[in-house]
Amino acid sequence: PGVLYLCPTPIGNLEDITLRALRILKEADYIAAEDTRVTKRLLNHYGIKTPLVSYREHNKEQMGRKIVEDILEGKSVALVSDAGTPGISDPGEDLVKKAVDAGVPVVPLPGPSAVICAVSASGLSTSKFAFEGFLPQKSAERRKQLEKLRDEKRTIVVYEAPHRLLKCLSDIRDILGERKIAVAREMTKLHEEFFRGTVSEAIEKFESTPPKGEIVLVIEGAGFETGGTRKVELSEREGINKIIL
Ligand code: SAM
Fold it and tell me: Where would one find coiled-coil regions in this protein (predicted)?
Protein backbone atom coordinates (compact mmCIF):
# COMPACT_ATOMS: atom_id res chain seq x y z
CA PRO A 1 0.00 0.00 0.00
CA GLY A 2 0.85 3.67 -0.06
CA VAL A 3 0.99 5.85 3.02
CA LEU A 4 -1.34 8.20 4.89
CA TYR A 5 0.78 11.20 5.82
CA LEU A 6 -0.52 13.52 8.55
CA CYS A 7 0.70 16.95 7.47
CA PRO A 8 0.51 19.81 9.96
CA THR A 9 -0.12 23.20 8.39
CA PRO A 10 0.26 26.73 9.81
CA ILE A 11 -2.19 27.96 12.45
CA GLY A 12 -1.89 31.47 11.05
CA ASN A 13 1.58 32.43 9.90
CA LEU A 14 2.26 30.83 6.51
CA GLU A 15 5.94 30.41 7.39
CA ASP A 16 5.08 27.84 10.05
CA ILE A 17 5.34 24.74 7.91
CA THR A 18 8.23 22.31 7.82
CA LEU A 19 10.37 21.58 4.78
CA ARG A 20 9.31 17.96 5.05
CA ALA A 21 5.61 18.83 5.10
CA LEU A 22 6.07 20.92 1.95
CA ARG A 23 7.88 18.04 0.22
CA ILE A 24 5.21 15.52 1.22
CA LEU A 25 2.45 17.87 0.02
CA LYS A 26 4.28 18.13 -3.32
CA GLU A 27 4.92 14.41 -3.69
CA ALA A 28 1.61 12.93 -2.49
CA ASP A 29 -0.79 11.56 -5.11
CA TYR A 30 -3.40 13.83 -3.62
CA ILE A 31 -4.15 15.94 -0.57
CA ALA A 32 -7.25 15.35 1.56
CA ALA A 33 -8.20 18.73 3.03
CA GLU A 34 -10.94 19.86 5.41
CA ASP A 35 -11.62 23.04 3.47
CA THR A 36 -10.10 23.00 0.01
CA ARG A 37 -10.26 26.81 -0.29
CA VAL A 38 -8.20 27.27 2.86
CA THR A 39 -5.64 24.69 1.72
CA LYS A 40 -5.51 26.11 -1.80
CA ARG A 41 -4.27 29.40 -0.38
CA LEU A 42 -1.40 27.59 1.30
CA LEU A 43 -0.60 25.52 -1.78
CA ASN A 44 -0.65 28.59 -4.03
CA HIS A 45 1.73 30.37 -1.68
CA TYR A 46 4.23 27.53 -2.04
CA GLY A 47 3.55 26.77 -5.72
CA ILE A 48 2.25 23.26 -4.99
CA LYS A 49 -0.07 21.79 -7.60
CA THR A 50 -1.03 18.44 -6.06
CA PRO A 51 -4.73 17.62 -6.56
CA LEU A 52 -7.04 18.28 -3.62
CA VAL A 53 -10.06 16.36 -2.40
CA SER A 54 -12.41 17.45 0.34
CA TYR A 55 -12.47 15.33 3.51
CA ARG A 56 -14.61 16.96 6.17
CA GLU A 57 -17.05 16.27 8.99
CA HIS A 58 -19.99 15.86 6.60
CA ASN A 59 -18.44 13.34 4.22
CA LYS A 60 -15.91 11.68 6.52
CA GLU A 61 -17.60 8.24 6.41
CA GLN A 62 -17.76 7.83 2.67
CA MET A 63 -14.58 9.79 1.83
CA GLY A 64 -12.70 8.09 4.62
CA ARG A 65 -13.45 4.69 3.12
CA LYS A 66 -12.47 5.90 -0.35
CA ILE A 67 -9.16 7.34 0.86
CA VAL A 68 -8.26 4.12 2.69
CA GLU A 69 -9.09 2.11 -0.46
CA ASP A 70 -6.87 4.39 -2.55
CA ILE A 71 -3.99 3.91 -0.14
CA LEU A 72 -4.48 0.14 -0.15
CA GLU A 73 -4.17 0.33 -3.93
CA GLY A 74 -0.82 2.07 -3.63
CA LYS A 75 -1.63 5.79 -3.54
CA SER A 76 -0.04 8.08 -0.98
CA VAL A 77 -2.33 10.66 0.56
CA ALA A 78 -1.43 13.74 2.61
CA LEU A 79 -4.09 14.66 5.14
CA VAL A 80 -4.32 18.29 6.22
CA SER A 81 -6.83 20.09 8.42
CA ASP A 82 -7.75 23.77 8.20
CA ALA A 83 -4.91 24.58 10.55
CA GLY A 84 -2.49 22.77 12.80
CA THR A 85 -2.07 19.05 13.23
CA PRO A 86 -4.70 16.88 11.55
CA GLY A 87 -6.45 14.49 13.89
CA ILE A 88 -6.42 16.84 16.89
CA SER A 89 -10.03 17.98 17.44
CA ASP A 90 -10.91 17.58 13.78
CA PRO A 91 -12.29 14.87 11.43
CA GLY A 92 -8.76 13.57 10.81
CA GLU A 93 -9.19 11.46 13.94
CA ASP A 94 -11.72 9.32 12.13
CA LEU A 95 -9.58 8.78 9.05
CA VAL A 96 -6.58 7.73 11.15
CA LYS A 97 -8.80 5.17 12.93
CA LYS A 98 -10.01 3.78 9.62
CA ALA A 99 -6.46 3.63 8.25
CA VAL A 100 -5.14 1.87 11.35
CA ASP A 101 -8.04 -0.62 11.25
CA ALA A 102 -7.25 -1.38 7.62
CA GLY A 103 -3.54 -1.86 8.33
CA VAL A 104 -2.59 1.14 6.23
CA PRO A 105 0.73 2.82 7.16
CA VAL A 106 0.12 6.13 8.96
CA VAL A 107 3.09 8.50 9.10
CA PRO A 108 2.75 11.62 11.28
CA LEU A 109 4.82 14.72 10.57
CA PRO A 110 5.55 16.96 13.53
CA GLY A 111 4.46 20.56 13.24
CA PRO A 112 2.25 23.33 14.55
CA SER A 113 -0.65 22.62 16.86
CA ALA A 114 -2.64 25.25 18.72
CA VAL A 115 -2.69 23.21 21.93
CA ILE A 116 1.11 22.87 22.22
CA CYS A 117 1.69 26.47 21.15
CA ALA A 118 -0.69 27.77 23.84
CA VAL A 119 0.58 25.54 26.64
CA SER A 120 4.21 26.36 25.91
CA ALA A 121 3.70 30.11 26.38
CA SER A 122 0.99 29.96 29.05
CA GLY A 123 3.30 30.55 31.99
CA LEU A 124 1.45 27.75 33.80
CA SER A 125 2.74 24.30 34.66
CA THR A 126 3.53 22.44 31.44
CA SER A 127 4.88 19.23 32.92
CA LYS A 128 1.43 17.64 32.93
CA PHE A 129 -1.65 18.84 31.16
CA ALA A 130 -5.09 17.52 30.28
CA PHE A 131 -6.30 18.47 26.80
CA GLU A 132 -10.10 18.65 26.74
CA GLY A 133 -10.59 19.76 23.13
CA PHE A 134 -13.82 21.76 22.81
CA LEU A 135 -16.07 21.88 25.89
CA PRO A 136 -19.79 21.33 25.22
CA GLN A 137 -21.46 24.35 23.61
CA LYS A 138 -24.46 24.43 25.93
CA SER A 139 -23.85 25.90 29.33
CA ALA A 140 -25.58 23.13 31.31
CA GLU A 141 -23.47 20.45 29.65
CA ARG A 142 -20.35 22.54 29.84
CA ARG A 143 -20.85 22.99 33.57
CA LYS A 144 -21.30 19.24 33.97
CA GLN A 145 -18.02 18.64 32.18
CA LEU A 146 -16.31 21.28 34.30
CA GLU A 147 -17.61 19.53 37.44
CA LYS A 148 -15.67 16.48 36.32
CA LEU A 149 -12.55 18.61 36.01
CA ARG A 150 -12.88 20.29 39.40
CA ASP A 151 -10.21 18.13 41.06
CA GLU A 152 -7.96 17.83 38.02
CA LYS A 153 -4.47 18.78 39.23
CA ARG A 154 -2.93 18.97 35.79
CA THR A 155 -3.10 22.13 33.71
CA ILE A 156 -6.31 22.03 31.65
CA VAL A 157 -6.39 23.08 28.00
CA VAL A 158 -9.54 23.78 25.98
CA TYR A 159 -10.37 25.21 22.58
CA GLU A 160 -13.09 27.86 22.63
CA ALA A 161 -14.97 29.99 20.11
CA PRO A 162 -14.77 33.78 20.68
CA HIS A 163 -18.55 34.28 21.03
CA ARG A 164 -18.68 31.71 23.84
CA LEU A 165 -15.56 32.88 25.67
CA LEU A 166 -17.26 35.03 28.31
CA LYS A 167 -19.91 32.45 29.16
CA CYS A 168 -17.26 29.78 29.31
CA LEU A 169 -15.05 31.88 31.60
CA SER A 170 -17.92 32.55 33.98
CA ASP A 171 -18.77 28.83 34.08
CA ILE A 172 -15.10 28.16 34.82
CA ARG A 173 -15.15 30.66 37.69
CA ASP A 174 -18.39 29.23 39.09
CA ILE A 175 -17.34 25.60 38.93
CA LEU A 176 -13.55 25.55 39.20
CA GLY A 177 -13.23 28.69 41.30
CA GLU A 178 -10.68 31.45 40.93
CA ARG A 179 -7.58 30.25 39.13
CA LYS A 180 -4.79 31.48 36.95
CA ILE A 181 -5.62 31.33 33.29
CA ALA A 182 -3.96 32.11 29.99
CA VAL A 183 -6.12 33.11 27.05
CA ALA A 184 -4.13 32.53 23.87
CA ARG A 185 -5.73 34.38 21.00
CA GLU A 186 -4.83 34.50 17.30
CA MET A 187 -1.48 32.82 17.86
CA THR A 188 1.10 33.41 15.12
CA LYS A 189 -1.23 35.95 13.48
CA LEU A 190 -1.09 39.72 13.21
CA HIS A 191 -3.20 40.27 16.33
CA GLU A 192 -1.65 37.56 18.49
CA GLU A 193 -2.42 38.17 22.14
CA PHE A 194 -1.74 36.32 25.34
CA PHE A 195 -3.83 37.37 28.32
CA ARG A 196 -2.43 35.97 31.56
CA GLY A 197 -4.16 36.56 34.88
CA THR A 198 -6.97 35.21 37.02
CA VAL A 199 -10.29 34.04 35.63
CA SER A 200 -11.97 37.16 37.08
CA GLU A 201 -9.40 39.43 35.47
CA ALA A 202 -9.98 37.69 32.16
CA ILE A 203 -13.74 38.19 32.49
CA GLU A 204 -13.22 41.86 33.23
CA LYS A 205 -10.93 42.32 30.26
CA PHE A 206 -13.09 40.49 27.72
CA GLU A 207 -16.29 42.15 28.96
CA SER A 208 -14.90 45.52 27.97
CA THR A 209 -13.39 44.28 24.69
CA PRO A 210 -15.28 41.29 23.28
CA PRO A 211 -12.75 38.93 21.73
CA LYS A 212 -12.41 38.02 18.08
CA GLY A 213 -10.54 35.22 16.38
CA GLU A 214 -9.35 31.84 17.54
CA ILE A 215 -8.79 31.02 21.17
CA VAL A 216 -7.15 28.43 23.38
CA LEU A 217 -7.69 28.54 27.15
CA VAL A 218 -5.01 27.21 29.46
CA ILE A 219 -6.30 26.83 33.00
CA GLU A 220 -4.29 26.19 36.13
CA GLY A 221 -4.93 22.79 37.70
CA ALA A 222 -6.62 22.28 41.06
CA GLY A 223 -4.72 22.82 44.26
CA PHE A 224 -2.96 26.14 43.73
CA GLU A 225 -3.64 29.16 45.90
CA THR A 226 -4.76 31.60 43.24
CA GLY A 227 -8.00 32.73 44.79
CA GLY A 228 -6.21 33.57 48.01
CA THR A 229 -8.90 31.91 50.10
CA ARG A 230 -8.06 28.23 50.06
CA LYS A 231 -5.11 26.55 51.76
CA VAL A 232 -3.54 24.30 49.22
CA GLU A 233 -0.57 22.13 48.46
CA LEU A 234 2.16 23.17 46.07
CA SER A 235 2.90 20.93 43.15
CA GLU A 236 4.38 17.65 44.39
CA ARG A 237 6.30 17.36 41.15
CA GLU A 238 8.69 20.00 42.40
CA GLY A 239 9.67 17.70 45.21
CA ILE A 240 8.24 20.21 47.67
CA ASN A 241 6.02 17.73 49.37
CA LYS A 242 2.96 19.11 51.06
CA ILE A 243 4.12 22.63 51.74
CA ILE A 244 1.06 24.44 53.00
CA LEU A 245 0.91 28.10 52.10
N1 SAM B 1 -6.01 20.43 14.57
C2 SAM B 1 -5.84 21.79 15.04
C3 SAM B 1 -4.53 21.95 15.79
O4 SAM B 1 -3.75 20.99 15.89
O5 SAM B 1 -4.22 23.06 16.21
C6 SAM B 1 -7.01 22.24 15.89
C7 SAM B 1 -8.33 22.16 15.18
S8 SAM B 1 -9.67 22.83 16.05
C9 SAM B 1 -10.99 22.45 14.94
C10 SAM B 1 -9.54 24.57 15.85
C11 SAM B 1 -9.36 25.31 17.17
O12 SAM B 1 -7.98 25.43 17.46
C13 SAM B 1 -9.88 26.72 17.14
O14 SAM B 1 -11.26 26.76 17.42
C15 SAM B 1 -9.08 27.38 18.24
O16 SAM B 1 -9.63 27.06 19.50
C17 SAM B 1 -7.75 26.66 18.09
N18 SAM B 1 -6.83 27.44 17.24
C19 SAM B 1 -6.45 27.17 15.97
N20 SAM B 1 -5.61 28.12 15.50
C21 SAM B 1 -5.43 28.99 16.52
C22 SAM B 1 -4.67 30.20 16.67
N23 SAM B 1 -3.93 30.69 15.66
N24 SAM B 1 -4.72 30.85 17.85
C25 SAM B 1 -5.49 30.39 18.86
N26 SAM B 1 -6.22 29.26 18.78
C27 SAM B 1 -6.19 28.57 17.63
Answer: none
Query: Sign of torsion, CA 168 85 3 53?
Result: positive
- Ligand 1 centroid to 209 CA: how many Å? 21
Say how many C-beta atoms besides its own lie within 10 A of residue 235's C-beta.
16
**Does ipTM surpass 0.85 in this model?**
yes
229 Cα–ligand 1 center, Å:
34
Ligand 1 centroid–CA 83 distance in Å is 7
| 197 CB-near residues (< 8 Å, 6+ apart) | 180, 181, 205
Q: Is 159 in the pocket of ligand 1 (CB under 6 A)?
A: yes
pLDDT per position as a tens digit, 177-202? 999 999 999 999 999 999 999 999 99
In terms of Cβ atoms closer than 10 Å to its own Cβ (0-12, 13-18, 19+), residue 222 is middle
Assess contact for 129 and 27: CB atoms under 8 A. no
Q: Alpha-carbon distance 16 to 91, whole Å?
A: 22
Residue 87 CB-density burial (10 A; 0-12 exposed, 13-18 middle, 19+ buried): buried
189 lines ligand 1 (CB under 6 A): yes
